[in-house]
Amino acid sequence: MIGLIGRKVGMTQLFDEKGDVLPVTVIQAGPCTVTEVRSADKNGYAAVQLGFGTNKEFRFTRPVLGQFKKRNLPPSRKLREFRTDGAPAEGGSAYEVGQSLTVALFEKGEHVDVRGVTKGRGFAGVVKRHKFAAGHASHGPTAGKQPGSIGASAYPSRVVKGKRLPGRMGGVNLTIKNLEVVAVDAEQHVMMVLGAIPGPPNGLVFVTKREG
Amino acid sequence: MGLIEKVEATQLKDGRPDLRPGDTVEVSVRVIEGDKERQQKFVGDIINVRGAGTRKTFTVRKISEGVGVERTFPLHGPSIAEIKVTKHSKVRRAKLFYLRRKTGKSARLTEQRTQ
Q1: Residue A106 C-alpha, separation from nearest chain B C-alpha, in angstroms
Q2: Residue B72 half-sphere exposure, CB side, CA atoms within 13 Å?
Q3: CA gap B86, B92 in Å, rounded
Q4: Which keywords does UniProt give here (chain B) (predicted)?
C-alpha cells in the first residue's frame, strides 16, 4: 500500500478529552517525491518509487545521480517502492513522476503500519532477548540471569534446533501494525501515532496505509 | 525548538500557577457524572512537584476525617478546571514526604511571610 518515508522524531504524551494520557510517537513523514511509477503492464506490478530527504551530490554514485538527472529531480537520499495494486491514486488520478506526497495522505483516526530497524542491542542474554524469567538475585547460589538447562543428556545428546539462547539482538526490520494516527500536521510534515515504533530518534521509518 | 517541544507546547495550559512544595492549594477538578459535569474541590498542601512541560505533576496531601489522603494531578491535564494557591509555607526541602509520618500539630507548615 501507498505510504511515506519518514524519520522518527521521538515520543511524548498527549491528553485526550477525558483527561487520560496517550503515549504518542512523533514522526516527520515526507514530503516524498515520486521518482518512478511502476505499472502492471510494464513491470508486472503497480507501485511508486518515492524519494525522501536530500544529500550532497558527491554522495551519490554517478549511475544513481543519472537516474535523477534524467527525470529533472533533485537527488533523494532514500528511495523506496510502495505497492499501489488495486488502489486508485488520490483523487482517482494516477501517480506522476515529480509529484510530491505529504502527510496529508493520512488522516486523523485512520490506522497505519510503521516499519523501521530496531535499536541494536548487541550480544544479549536470554532474559533480555527471550524474556526468560531471571532467578532470584539473592538467597544463595541461584541462577541469576543464566539460561539454565538447555536440554537432556544421553538422549538426544545435542541441543534441539531453535533453542532460545543468548545472541545478537535488535538491528532487524520490524513492522508495527495497526497504529492509530492521532494527529496530522501537513504544514510541518509531522504526524503522530499512538504507541511506540521501532528504532532510535532520527531513525528512518516507513509509514504505510492499511488495506481496506 | 525541536519538534517534540513544539508538539508539547500546544498541550500546555495557560494560567497554571508556578507551584512549589509547601503551597496550600485549592484544586477544582472536573467530575463527569453521567452526562452532567460538576467541579469538586481538593484542598491541601503540595508535598511533591515533579517532571517538566506536559509531564509536570504535583501531589496534594490533606487530612480527611482523620485519614491522610494524597492525590497526584497532571499540572496541564484538562480535568483540572482551576488551581488556586492560598498560602505559601516555609519549607526546607523539595519533597515533603516526612509529613506522612507526622500527625496533628507537628504536621503543620509555617506560613512564609512576604513583603
Answers
A1: 18
A2: 7
A3: 19
A4: Ribonucleoprotein, Ribosomal protein
Residue from B4, B7, B32, B71 to probe the interface with A (highest A Cβ count within 10 Å): B7
- Chain B positions in Cβ-Cβ contact with residue A12 (cut-off 8 Å): 4, 7-8, 54
Element (H, E) at A36: strand A32-38
B3–A28 C-beta distance less than 8 A = yes
Decide if A148 is inside a domain. Answer: no
Beta strands in chain B (DSSP E): 24-33, 36-50, 57-64, 67-74, 80-87, 89-90, 110-111
CA of B74 vs chain A CAs: smallest distance (Å) = 9
Measured on CA atoms in the order B88, B91, B94, B96, is the torsion positive or negative? negative
Report ipTM for this prediction: 0.74
CATH code at position A107:
2.40.30.10
Flag whether residue A202 sits within 8 Å of chain B, measured between CB atoms. no
- Structure-block grid coordinates of residue A79: 528511495
Domain with A178, as residue range(s), is 3-134+154-209
What pLDDT score was predicted for residue A87?
54
Give the pLDDT confidence of B58-96 residue by residue, as tens digits.
999 999 998 999 999 999 988 888 899 998 998 899 999
Confidence at A122, pLDDT banded by 50, 70, 90: very high
